[in-house]
Amino acid sequence: MNRLPLPLLLLGAVLASSCQASDPAAPPMVTPTVTLSHQSVPLGTPVDMTYRFVVAKDAKFTTNYHVMVHFGDKDEQLIYTDDHEPPTPTSTWKPGQTIEYTRTFFAPMYPYIGAATVEVGMYAAGEKLRVPMAGADTGHRSYKVATFQLRPNDDGVKTIFKDGFHSVEGAPANGVGWHWMKKDATLAVANPNKDSVFYLEVDNPSRLLTSPQMVSIAVGSSTVDEFSITPGDAPVLRRIPMSSEAWSGTEFIYIKMSVDKTFVPSQMSSSERDVRELGVRVLHAVLVPK
Questions:
Q1: Which of 20, 69, 204, 253 can pair with 231 through a Cys bridge, CB separation 3.0 to 4.6 Å?
Q2: What is the pTM of this model?
């Protein structure tokens, strides 16, 4: 799933909400609902969010809109966002049609715990007004669709980027930081002593490579997953089951990553100045106990 840094996401939302204090009344074009896979979300962990949009029988979509997703604290103050483009462009939505899809959202390590709200809207560049929807409008056609609880990460399962990774880039405080890896790299997490699922999201936004890359994940001498990514495509999210029996008695679990192709941007294009060896980009790496 592609995610932009928070300032860019907020810019899109601000531009979309530059309408007057009281937006004109209009028949709802769509009814939105959002369902979370669990209602209690530890900081830093993933939650599956299922979006469902029921198009009104007399609605006609001719523009491709972005879906605005705002997460608020107990006072409904913005804490982070997950604006995105729906998998099915809105210009193809038909009257009476139901559009449903699921996205995995990783709650950032934001300094807030407690009740949280989810509001959605739809906006397009160049349009002052958002799409009118059915539901609880909190202002400027932003609709409250769900609530949940953010809680501390009591399991204390933190991923440590060890050998083979470049320094963090992006905006890690806003949950959009990433690490480029070299050909081989190692992650370490404290042993939760429970069966777990390892969530790994990777991509390669560069188009300097023209062929897929194979990524291999191993614990000890055992390969636990292999998959390919295509440079320039959307991020790949893997959910890798891990049995507690595989690391019984160890303090840390060491997860080894390998990629079959690396590249040095400056050697492939005269316009590139990056002299690092790059494999794939790790967006999220989280071990979640079951």
A1: 204
A2: 0.84
